[in-house]
Amino acid sequence: MPKDPRTGHLIPGLVTHPLTVPDSIPRPPYVGKQEYNEEGYGDTYTEEEIDRIREASQIAAGAIDAIADEIHPGVTTQHLDLIGHEYMVKHGAYPSTLGYRGYPRSLCTSVNEVICHGIPDDTVLEEGDIINLDVTAYKNGMHGDTNRTFGVGEISTEAQDLITRTQNSMNRAIKAVKPGRPISVIGRVIESYAKRFGYGVVRDFTGHGVGRQFHSGLIIPHYDDPETYSQLIEENMVFTIEPMLTLGGIAWEQWPDDWTIVTKDRSLTAQFEHTLVVRADGAEVLTGTLR
Ligand code: MF3
Ligand code: CO
Ligand code: CO
């Protein structure tokens, strides 16, 4: 039966074999704790700290490159998790999601109608699926966070357009980042671009300050709200931009696993994410790769 290009029908799979990280790799302080307040340490960094965030960011980006080579019909999402896990460990990094508020795996795999926070399991990828890989690495006391969406085999034009335009919306927002502009400029750029195509712009999951903490408390919305987000962008601030766009609505439901977020209408959704540092003349992308 050919795949309906517009809606997904994903069901929860089984999460198997726990992942371990050698004791020699330092863990973020929240690992093993259900509740941990990591907010309130600020969002600007010294050059030495930025170098450390860049190193973690490059490991996260490299993990996605490594996993991307393994995306084929017939592969399970937990296989992709294992590739990413091993890549991070090999590079001396701790996979930030592993043990984050009880999250059980080393990255997020969000397939089709999953907006974000999909847990890798024994779900088998099929031709025509789309999958987001969201990887965060922790090294030398710093986190770097990035995600990309890929097609599995041949995908529909609608799905490919959604992926391309979601990436475009992120890149446009990155170009709009300058010191002295309000944070709301980011959401304005993303929302106005997405609306051209009638896409939904997810509101309840946002970009965030990142570095010393996985989520610093600073919120970067992907929709236009100049009243609430009038705070000015500052030089040496580090945060993510990670828009989630949908082919339908933006209402969502959470699976009983307490993590997986799906569109209520089961419309397809794509996401891209970079960690960036604000420079005098614009953003430097820390999670960029040559691919
Ligand atoms: N990496 C995600 C983000 O971009 C957060 C994942 S948290 C998890 O903010 F626990 F779901 F993995
Ligand atoms: Co993020
Ligand atoms: Co992320």
The count of helical stretches stands at 4
Report the order of strands and helices.
HHEEEEEHHEEEEEEEEEE
The portion of residues forming beta strands comes to: 15-25%
Largest sheet: 4 strands, antiparallel
Radius of gyration: 18 Å
Find the structural class using helix and strand composition.
alpha+beta
Question: What is the averaged pLDDT score?
Answer: 95
Coarse morphology: globular
What binds here, in terms of ligands, is: 2-amino-4-trifluoromethylsulfanyl-butyric acid, cobalt (II) ion
What distance lies between the first and last C-alpha atoms, to the nearest angstrom? 34 Å
Query: Into which percent range does the helicity of residues fall?
Result: 10-25%
Which segments are poorly predicted (pLDDT under 50) over 5 or more consecutive residues?
Answer: none
How many β-strand stretches? 15
Key traits:
291 residues, binds cobalt (II) ion, alpha+beta, binds 2-amino-4-trifluoromethylsulfanyl-butyric acid, three-stranded antiparallel beta sheet, 24% helix
